[in-house]
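Working notes for the structural subgroup meeting. M.R. asked for a predicted model of this chain before we commit to crystallization trials. I am recording the input and output together here so anyone reviewing the notebook later can reproduce the run.

Input as submitted:
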Amino acid sequence: MPPQPPKTAPLEFETALWEQGCLRVFGIDEAGRGAWAGPVVAAAVCLPHDHADLHHLFRGVNDSKQLTPPLRESLALQVQAHTAHWAVGEASNEEIDALGIVPATMLAMRRAMDAICHDGCAPDHLLLDALRWNYHNTPFTPLIKGDSRSLSIAAASILAKVHRDHLMIALNEQYPGYSFAEHKGYGTGQHQQALDHLGPSPVHRRSFAPIRARLF
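Returned structure, recorded in token form:
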């Protein structure tokens, strides 16, 4: 039996907002909050409200954690090619250590939305994955498990994940021995063994307990 195509995230929240006249609806999501190394990345995506069949155009777009890496890469290109507006923002491991992970995540979100606004697109409404976040008093809706309940947030989750994965692959070249290209900075057994052998690198989050415990 051939594999079933991945489920596509729904559009109910976007459709309701479009019917209210909120046409510039942005889904926002992050990648890397729980990692021990590297930046946290956020993406913002505004779907084209006037397209006849968004579910067909973005078929398979869903929570990035449910997708294989090759499918994420393919869908990221699809999202970038067909969305009305999109942008990605980052907050470094140094900013995470200085601010805390939640404020740093919001900083990455702000940088993504600032890039959008710099291009002349002011948002009408934000759809957020669980977080409550005030961006210039823009109305927002926090959705628990939003990356599987909103197509806009799902698209943002894919862009954030793919962008961060590329960053971690680049850091793997810069800091060999940690296998960043494989675990992307998360606390796997392989990562823990590398830390025990090498100690933390300059891109590890020193405020995180597993890293703080290994500081020499």
